[in-house]
């Protein structure tokens, strides 16, 4: 054997080990971190001007509280522990200035409108209890307050119309435990194994049948995770109309299909064996079938979205810039997410887009379910906006914004990360064409849009509110519903009112109706409403007169009055309906923005109903009215507890006034019918439960403005489409081969 051979083999092995080590090290080397690049944005207005719409700061709220405490001459109790007979501050929010003042400031060089707050106070400790609304200003140092209740509503707001405070719910809970349930100890112990901790209740609304009533059914559930689908069959009607809690009383009791005068009668009937008892299997604390804990372990990571060169939008205070878009955002304590001064390419297209109300009407053969008509604005859509979970509720790399409110307390509260903003690649082209006729080319544009989102959890329902801004000048307002289905105890003919979703659980049929306010200003303040549609006409073929052709033609109509512009929920509406400007585009057409509604609404409550006027906005899929400062909202937080004498009745807005060349508002209603089914267990998915509207340019531009987007792709058969300068998509292996800078996961929702 050659004596050098072992050395040669040793050297060869060392070289091989070195090569393999280099390969492994190169594979394991981390990609560089993504670095932000200078943002390309159009100048679209001053960010400081948008502060005229900004939510109150915690400091401003605190100043208003101090002012009210020192200047009303009455004692104000913290609402979190107030009795019905106390005086307290229910909420403090921004008083949005009058539109004329704001436009004079934004467009006419006028003075900035004074910054003011709207304070809602309950006065229970006085001879004539009522609800009073004050405008307090100027902020940040208040010096005046003005009672605007009569001016705003045409009269005082009776005390019985006040939304229930959390303290009142707690007081009802204490009444049920210490007074009502104390009258039926044997029944509760033997049927429910009641120990004062294993039962929770859910309220219903409205509270009775007549103006002045405050009688509420409270539905009992097992106190477990996802309790909404764990009814036990017991419901109690409590009369809590008296301001003296000691005067509250049980008006009726319902158990497993039978009604009783009170808990004493229920106990007596049970002890005497005259009750049909349906024992419900005791659920574990996690709720068992209602638990949202995953039934499968984590596996391969789901796809993530990131921005290789950083965000292409900016958020400064309450102002957002994205490509050609700019707008201000805010969060109303009652109605939630709202936008102001929405501009595209520097020109205002809408003054305000805001949520107005979320209505749910239930059916059941149990008293609580059949009497429920929730108007969520009364509970507070903005108040119940929840902290968002990074990576699930919004993309992980989204921008998260804290919001603040003052509701039912004397101190402002912060909702961490309760609003998110992100640009989303929707995974499909906004437009494209592949040409294989005559010339060979491909042209397309990535459909990347900006999303502003908040999610409100009002009781059992979670509403995901989105406003989406597209590169072609379109705006989408969308709501997706999830959360738990509300339920009744299954008995008797319950299947007439829903589906059985568990052993004793009836998923009850209900409608969802969402109302939006859309104050479009297309090409200026004055607009008209125009309808375009189609009709077939019969004609003879000019080249062959013996032949008949059925051809579609364009129909056009100007809708002159509010009555003509009020389209009932299930009626046929023109498929192209748009706000028309007084200016024309290059091709001689009136510039416009089209309203396109996506809705699968159930039927509206019959107008013969004694409470229908309180929700009369839901009669219409679309109603266009003259904009009036005295008609700022389609409903009122006071309508929930007195729908029989509504504080605001939207039907009164429609009085056949002319709407030609006027400042107009579109009131849009979208909704869907929900018949809960077994796949709503443990809770409802968003798929298929999404409704809303689109605002689309209609001859507003001379051509599609997205042709000027920096995201366009175009190459021909004769070009080198692998070259970056020809096709930016070809550069992705270089420009997007980086690791996103994901911040550590945090959550402040508890």
From TrEMBL:
Its cofactor is Cu cation. Residues 162-257 form the Copper amine oxidase N3-terminal domain. GO terms for cellular component: plasma membrane. GO terms for biological process: amine metabolic process. Contains 1 topaquinone per subunit. Topaquinone (TPQ) is generated by copper-dependent autoxidation of a specific tyrosyl residue. It comes from the Eukaryota. InterPro entries: Cu_Am_Ox_Cu-bd, Cu_amine_oxidase, Cu_amine_oxidase_C, Cu_amine_oxidase_C_sf, Cu_amine_oxidase_N-reg, Cu_amine_oxidase_N2, Cu_amine_oxidase_N3. The keyword Translocase does not apply. The chain crosses the membrane at residues 7-26. The keyword Metal-binding applies. SUPFAM superfamilies: Amine oxidase catalytic domain (SSF49998), Amine oxidase N-terminal region (SSF54416). Residues 305-707 form the Copper amine oxidase catalytic domain. Residues 73-144 form the Copper amine oxidase N2-terminal domain. Keywords: Copper, Membrane, Metal-binding, Oxidoreductase, TPQ, Transmembrane, Transmembrane helix. Pfam families: Cu_amine_oxid, Cu_amine_oxidN2, Cu_amine_oxidN3. Its EC number is 1.4.3.-. GO terms for molecular function: copper ion binding; primary methylamine oxidase activity; quinone binding. Belongs to the copper/topaquinone oxidase family. This is Amine oxidase.
């Amino acid at each position: 054997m050659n004596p050098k051979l072992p050395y040669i083999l040793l050297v060869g092995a060392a070289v091989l080990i070195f090569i393999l080590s280099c390969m492994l090290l190169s594979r394991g080397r981390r990609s560089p971190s993504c670095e932000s690049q200078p943002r390309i944005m159009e100048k679209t207005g001053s960010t400081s001007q948008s502060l005229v719409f900004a939510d109150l700061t915690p400091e401003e709220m605190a100043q208003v509280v101090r002012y009210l405490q020192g200047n009303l001459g009455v004692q104000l109790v913290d609402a979190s522990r107030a009795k019905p007979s106390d005086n307290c501050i229910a909420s403090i929010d921004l008083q949005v200035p009058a539109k004329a003042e704001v436009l004079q400031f934004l467009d006419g060089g006028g003075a900035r409108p004074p910054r003011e707050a709207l304070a809602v106070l309950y006065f229970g400790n006085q001879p004539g209890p009522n609800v009073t609304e004050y405008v307090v200003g100027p902020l940040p140092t208040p010096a005046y307050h003005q009672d605007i209740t009569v001016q705003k509503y045409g009269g005082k707001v009776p005390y019985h119309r006040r939304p229930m405070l959390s303290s009142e719910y707690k007081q009802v809970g204490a009444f049920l435990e210490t007074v009502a349930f104390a009258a039926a100890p044997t029944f509760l112990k033997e049927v429910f194994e009641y120990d004062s901790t294993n039962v929770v209740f859910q309220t219903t609304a409205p509270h009775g049948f007549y103006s002045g009533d405050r009688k509420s059914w409270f539905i009992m559930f097992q106190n477990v995770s996802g309790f909404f689908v764990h009814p036990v069959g017991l419901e109690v009607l409590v009369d809590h109309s008296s301001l003296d809690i000691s005067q509250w009383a049980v008006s009726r009791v319902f158990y497993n299909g039978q009604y009783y005068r009170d808990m004493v009668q229920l106990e007596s009937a049970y002890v005497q064996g005259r009750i049909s008892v349906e024992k419900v299997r005791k659920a574990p604390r996690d709720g068992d079938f209602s638990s949202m804990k995953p039934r499968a372990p984590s596996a391969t990571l789901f796809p993530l979205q990131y921005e290789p060169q950083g965000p292409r939008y900016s958020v400064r205070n309450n102002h957002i810039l994205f490509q050609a878009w700019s707008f201000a955002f805010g969060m109303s304590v009652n109605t939630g997410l709202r936008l102001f001064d929405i501009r595209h390419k520097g020109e205002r297209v809408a003054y305000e887009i805001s949520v107005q109300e979320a209505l749910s009407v239930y059916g059941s053969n149990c008293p609580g379910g059949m009497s429920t008509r929730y108007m969520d604005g009364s509970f507070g859509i903005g108040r119940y906006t929840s902290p968002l979970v990074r990576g699930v509720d919004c993309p992980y790399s989204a921008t998260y914004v804290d919001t603040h409110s003052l509701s039912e307390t004397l101190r402002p509260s912060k909702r961490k990360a309760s609003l998110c903003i992100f640009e989303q690649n929707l995974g499909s082209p906004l437009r494209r064409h592949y040409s294989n006729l005559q010339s060979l080319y491909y042209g397309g544009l990535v459909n990347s849009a900006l999303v502003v989102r908040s999610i409100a959890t009002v009781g059992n329902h979670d509403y995901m509110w989105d406003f989406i801004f597209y590169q072609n000048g379109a705006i989408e307002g969308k709501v997706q519903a999830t959360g738990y289905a509300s339920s009744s105890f299954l008995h008797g003919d319950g299947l007439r009112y829903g589906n059985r979703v568990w052993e004793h659980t009836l998923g009850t049929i209900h409608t969802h109706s969402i109302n939006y306010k859309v104050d479009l200003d297309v090409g200026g303040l004055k607009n008209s409403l125009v309808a375009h549609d189609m009709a077939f006409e019969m004609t003879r073929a000019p080249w062959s007169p013996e032949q008949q052709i059925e051809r579609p033609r364009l129909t056009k109509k100007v809708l002159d009055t509010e009555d003509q512009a009020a389209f009932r929920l299930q009626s046929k509406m023109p498929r192209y309906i748009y706000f028309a400007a007084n200016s024309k585009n290059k091709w001689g057409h009136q510039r416009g923005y089209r309203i396109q509604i996506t809705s699968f609404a159930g039927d509206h409550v019959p107008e013969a109903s004694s409470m229908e006027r309180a929700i009369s906005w839901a009669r219409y899929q679309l109603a266009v009215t003259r904009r009036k400062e005295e008609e700022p909202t389609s409903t009122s937080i006071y309508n929930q507890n007195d729908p029989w004498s509504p504080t605001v009745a939207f039907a009164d807005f429609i009085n056949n006034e002319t709407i030609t060349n006027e400042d107009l508002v579109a009131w849009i209603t979208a909704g869907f019918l929900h018949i809960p089914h077994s796949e709503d267990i443990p809770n409802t998915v968003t798929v298929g439960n999404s409704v809303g509207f689109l605002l689309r340019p209609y001859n507003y531009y001379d051509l599609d403005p997205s042709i000027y987007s920096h995201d366009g792709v175009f190459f021909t058969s004769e070009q080198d489409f692998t070259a970056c300068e020809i096709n930016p998509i070809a550069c992705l292996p270089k420009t997007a081969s980086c690791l996103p800078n994901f911040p550590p996961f945090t959550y402040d929702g508890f």
